[in-house]
Structures are given as C-alpha cells and as structure tokens.
Design brief:
Blueprint (H helix, E strand, L loop, with lengths): L23 H17 L1 E3 L2 E3 L6 E2 L1 H17 L12 H7 L4 E10 L4 H10 L1 H7 L6 E7 L2 E9 L16
Parallel strand pairs: 3-5
Antiparallel strand pairs: 1-2, 4-6, 5-6
Length: 170
C-alpha cells in the first residue's frame, strides 16, 4: 500500500486532549494517510475496492468524534450507539452538521494512528467506510483508549434530508 506502511513518526492524539483541534501537521498527516489509501484502492475482506476521491478535514466532524470518544471514556462503554440511544446521525445533528451521508469507525486500545488504521483496514466493514466514495469529509479524535473517526457529506443547500434516521451502511 502506498506509503501507508508504518510512518517514520508515531503519534498519539492524546496530547491534544482539551485543545479545539490537533495541530495542522497532525491533521495533514491524518488526511494524507486516509487519502493515500482511498487513492490507491484496497481490498476490504474479499471485496476489491476501487480508488475513490479524497476526503478533507472538517472541524465539526472532529468535534462530533471528540464528543463521542469522551462519552465512551466517561461512561465506560464502546459502541456506535451511546448509552442514551444516540447514533452517529444524532450526534451530527446535535452539532449542526447537516449530513447527507454519515459514517463512523471506532477503535479501542490502539496506541497510535498507524495502528488504528491498520486495524480498520483489516476489518471489512471499517475498511469499506474508509473507502466509501460517498464520504467527502472526516474528523478523527482519540480520548483515553477510544478512537472515533467520523465521515460525512453535507446535504446540498436548499435540499431537505428525507431520511432523518441514520442506519448502518447508509
């Protein structure tokens, strides 16, 4: 895979806990890594995924990812559905992200970004989310042992979302 192999640097997002955003160089490395994978294409499980367009960083998706990672850490659970029943679509709505497409990858216990990406690529469903061409934006946060990667695409202006509930795979 195109320079995804382990980078010369390994970082944790944990040192940036409490900041509004990771430093620009960290964001650039995250986006470059994900876009290199998307540009090359890969195999997710047994399915060959063709190259797809790039994603760009979205500060609001970073905030939704950070909030969910904090919630899992505070309430000691790991899951796409929060203890109060909210899913990724609900989280996007609460933060004002007007989504057409919404997706979420979770990780638990990985020490570094390269490690969590490796694990996601080895999981067919997580890999397919990374390779989902409908997704145009992303944010990623780590809080404690929890990683949250949010993908989304904004609904075009003057459009109204007809599906107000998120469902896995949509």
């Amino acid at each position: 895979m195109k320079s995804f192999a382990i980078f010369s640097f390994v970082f944790l997002l944990l040192p940036y806990y409490g900041q509004s955003q990771p430093p620009a160089e960290v964001i650039d490395e995250i986006i470059t890594t994900i876009n290199d994978i998307r540009e090359e294409g890969c195999t997710c499980g047994r399915k060959k995924m063709p190259p797809v367009g790039p994603v760009k960083w979205n500060d609001l998706l970073y905030n939704t990812a950070s909030a969910h990672a904090n919630d899992m850490r505070r309430n000691n659970y790991f899951g796409h559905i929060s203890k109060d029943g909210r899913d990724v679509g609900d989280r996007f709505d609460e933060h004002g992200y007007r989504w057409q497409y919404a997706g979420e990858n979770l990780g638990e216990g990985q020490e570094s970004f390269p490690e969590v990406v490796k694990d996601w690529l080895e999981s067919p469903s997580h890999c397919r989310m990374i390779m989902n061409g409908d997704m145009t934006e992303m944010g990623l946060a780590k809080r404690g042992k929890y990683w949250v990667q949010h993908f989304g695409t904004l609904i075009p202006k003057n459009y109204k979302r007809t599906n107000s509930r998120y469902s896995e795979g949509n």
